[in-house]
User: Which sequence fits this backbone?
């Protein structure tokens, strides 16, 4: 009886699936955040972050730093 209840438990399966999904997405975002952090000096002077990204009037280092914080932390 216990084994049947354990295997047919929908909330347990749902919680396990959500846990695996959150861990996968978190590791992927951390990987991209670490890449940006390790190439910070190159990216902050790039044309993309200087001219194309505008976050509340800030360009360059501020939006890049916030992006790294959101992805890595």
Assistant:
């Amino acid at each position: 009886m216990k084994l049947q209840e354990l295997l047919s438990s929908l909330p347990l399966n749902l919680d396990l699936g959500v846990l695996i999904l959150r861990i996968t997405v978190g590791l992927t975002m951390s990987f991209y955040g670490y890449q940006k952090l390790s190439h910070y000096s190159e990216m902050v002077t790039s044309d993309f972050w200087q001219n194309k990204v505008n976050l509340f009037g800030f360009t360059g280092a501020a939006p890049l730093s916030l992006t790294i914080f959101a992805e890595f932390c």
Summary: The chain has a mean pLDDT of 82. The radius of gyration is 20 Å. The chain is about 80% helix and 0% strand.
